[in-house]
Amino acid sequence: MPIDVMMPFYGDVGQFRQAVTSVLDQRDGDLRLVVIDDCYPDPEPAHWLASLTDPRVHYLRNETNLGVNGNFRRCVDLVEADHFVVMGCDDVMLPDYVATVRRLARHHPDAAVIAPGVEVIDDRDQVVHPLGDRIKSLLTPRTSTEPVVLRGEAMATSLYHGNWTYFPSLLWRTDPVRDVGFRPGLDIVLDLALLVDLAARGGALVHDPSVVFRYRRHQGSVSSVQAVDGRRFAEENAFFAEEARRCADRGWSRAARAARLHATSRLNHAQSRALATAGRLRRASPTA
User: Fold this and answer.
1) pLDDT tens digits for 6-39?
2) Which of 61, 145, 154, 212 is the most exposed, fewest CB within 10 Å of its CB?
3) Distance from CA of residue 43 to its chain's centroid?
4) Cα separations (Å) of 220 from 11, 59, 119, 216, 223?
5) What is d(CA 262, CA 232) in angstroms, rounded to the nearest whole number?
6) In whole angstroms, what is the distance from residue 101 CA to residue 172 CA?
7) Where does the Glycosyltransferase 2-like domain lie (predicted)?
């Protein structure tokens, strides 16, 4: 059965072409690529996809703009395979991504989600190591040869300390994700919410450090824009407060404590505020 690669699209056309090409160039090409256009104003991406004449490529355009959460939910509704990826339209699959995650899913058939190794790139395709991603690396479970398997409270606690996963790289098992679904109203932490909801249902997360995916980090991302004006942290703070209550009710004391602290979110908030203050000072300086 093919893996479904669902690609919500609204963004840079050049990076979109690169993302699509990286999917179609997989060494294991048993996949279906579904592009869901969220009313992008330029018809060029649709015309380019049609010119590929690849039967694995399917293009759909939303009647109205659904936004991040709505388009992700539509992606899940349109999945036909047992496993799927919701890939960013600016990210890059390395050639062995599909083969790697398929092997992991085969060896761990009950896993709700597979998290492969990821490297971060910038707008110029250069590998970069921003502070936030260095912290993610420190929080990622360590493994020597065998993949790490997390479930239940241990999985939730690890993710509340800091979401070390990269959502566009994750391979999801369709049935448990459909049972849980994305929580309405979330844009920044919707992936974390889905992961911890799966953990609460007994779902497992399997992590293998083999780097097979490139995640693009740039200032135009939803999280970067919302970090500047504070919306990101308002959503995160409300989410973690509710999670602490849920975990306490469930008897997950370690997870509840980790959710109350949400240390990496607080650190990221402090860093963003410091950078914003420095920027304002530079603009106010007569020598700037």
Assistant:
1) 999 998 999 999 999 999 999 999 999 999 999 9
2) 145
3) 26
4) 9, 24, 19, 10, 8
5) 14
6) 10
7) 5-131
**Which amino acid is residue 105, in one-letter code?**
A
Q: Are 102 and 196 in contact (CB under 8 A)?
A: no
Residue 269 near residue 233, CB atoms below 8 Å: yes
Label the pairing between strands 83-86 and 204-216. Answer: unpaired
Nearest to 23 by CA among 7, 47, 11: 7
DSSP string covering 185-221, please? T-SSSHHHHHHHHHHHTT-EEEEEEEEEEEEE--TTS
| pLDDT tens column, 175-210 | 999 999 999 888 889 999 999 999 999 999 999 999
Q: H helices within the chain, ranges in order?
A: 13-24, 44-52, 67-78, 97-107, 131-139, 152-161, 174-180, 190-200, 222-229, 231-250, 253-261, 263-284
Q: HSE-up of 45 (CA within 13 Å, CB side)?
A: 30
